[in-house]
Fold this protein.
Amino acid sequence: MQTELGDVSNILWRERQLLELLVFKLEEEQLVLASGRTRWLQHATREVEAVLGEIKRLELDRAVQVDALARVMGSAENASLRELAEHAPAPWDRIFTEHRKSLMELTSEIDGVAKANKDMLSRGQAATRDALAALGEQEIAAYSPLGQPTADRGLGSRLFDGAM
């Protein structure tokens, strides 16, 4: 059973590291958004998605390891981390409790940063719409949903004032 306990703990450590990396990548994305340097936003978002992919793969490994440990301990399959901590012998009970606490804190932090990023993106999109509407155009579209050019509405080229 010691091997299974150690395997689960190692996966939890790796998950914590990936969640911390996700917080970093989300904050990095936030800095790009705040700076207005949207040129790098695609790269920052791709890095966030890459970390999320690694987390999903690790979650599958964790589920397999937790089920194996639960069988050895006589617990129910799909046992939660709280249940594992309750049934694990010392010092593993404390270790799993600390993992759970840390994972919950990181998840909360990720939720907050992700929400802030979404809000910043929404405000940026609204500001762009408002700026375009200020030019006097009710609907800005160059192509139809099918990818066909829209009818010429006499828009022509425009020179934007740098103060905008």
Notes: Helices lie at 2-35, 41-73, 81-87, 92-134.
